[in-house]
Amino acid sequence: MATSGYTYHTIRTLSLPIPSSLAIATTLLPLLTGFSLYSTGTLLPSSKPNSSHSARRQPPASLLIVVLLLTVYETTVATLALTYITPINNLTCALDEHWSHLFRSKDDNAIRRIQETYQCCGLHSTHDKAYPFPKKGVGNDACVKAFPGRIQSCFGPWRGEERAGAGLLLSVAIVVFVIKLVYLSLSIPPTSRKDWLRNLFRHPWTKQNQTSQSYRSITNTEEAEAEDGGNVSYYDDGTVRINRRLQGSTPYSDHLVDRVEVEEGAES
Q1: Taking residues 6-16, what's their average pLDDT?
Q2: pTM of this prediction?
Q3: Which end of the chain has the smaller Cβ count within 10 Å, N or C?
């Protein structure tokens, strides 16, 4: 967050052609990711060793949607930041247009700050749209005359600052994405990670539909077992157990059918 905040300050101070909104969005990214993962953390399957039934739980659609939205957010920030790093030709055009806009609008404060920061004059040369601005009695070499030690133009270091700032924004998006993956990998039991990742790239309504079909299938199994003289038991955690009577024997055998999670609206 401090990195993107510093980049926002640099964009404003040196009039870089990077949108301030991109820096603000990058600054909010770690906060939104942390808050979202913390809020939905209770929805993750338990990773305790004795939670054998919980380990088979599938993540709810709400958690999958949150993770997908965060991934889209991170990808968008990273992609936009990358456009201010490469290709070089596009950067040159954007910097030329932005400096020309500052020059035409006579924004002396912006151009003066850039020239003072890098001890330079003008854009592509020391005489190219430099401050002080040319006017009657003042030529385009006024900057060099006023500051004899400035012998380089500002384009090189200014472009380098733009790429460095965009690189910081890109790094924030990548780091947040990696931290999110590490958090999820540590929170999800190893036995359900493959199913979790498979469902992550599956449409939420498809998952709900499949869950509903699974529920109906198990319900049919329960009815068949009950007709055969078995007992069906339901538990608060969603576990369904069927007690089958063994042939030629009085005791019942305890058979775990499955754990079914039916979310609100799954059958509607």
Answers
A1: 92
A2: 0.66
A3: C
